[in-house]
TrEMBL record:
Belongs to the phD/YefM antitoxin family. Residues 1-15 have a biased composition (Polar residues). Pfam families: PhdYeFM_antitox. Antitoxin component of a type II toxin-antitoxin (TA) system. InterPro entries: Antitoxin_Phd/YefM, YefM-like_sf. This is Antitoxin. Residues 1-22 are annotated as: Disordered.
Length: 83
C-alpha cells in the first residue's frame, strides 16, 4: 500500500492523478499543510466500513442501463384469518 499526500491545489490541478493514486492506497489531501481529507477507492472504503453493495444501491447508481433486472411477478391472494 502506498500513501500519497497532495495539497488541495495539487488535487484541483490533477484530479485524475489523485484517483489513480487512490487505487494503490489512501491519498491524504492537505489544507495549508495540515491533513484535511482522505481519498480512498470504493473497494477500500467498503472494506473499512464492512459495507456490501446491494441491489438498491446498484440500481441507484448512474449508468446502470446495462444491468438486466427483471424480477419475477408475484401474485398475492388474500386469505381469511380462520379465527
Amino acid at each position: 500500500m502506498t500513501i500519497t499526500t497532495l495539497s488541495s491545489r495539487e488535487l484541483n490541478q490533477d484530479v485524475s492523478r489523485a484517483k489513480k493514486a487512490a487505487q494503490n492506497g489512501p491519498v491524504f489531501i492537505t489544507d495549508r499543510g495540515k491533513p484535511a481529507h482522505v481519498l480512498l477507492s470504493m473497494e477500500e472504503y467498503q472494506r473499512l466500513t464492512h459495507q456490501r453493495r446491494n441491489i438498491a444501491d446498484a440500481l441507484a447508481m448512474p449508468d446502470v442501463a446495462d444491468i438486466e433486472f427483471e424480477p419475477q411477478q408475484v401474485t398475492i391472494e388474500p386469505q381469511s384469518a380462520g379465527f
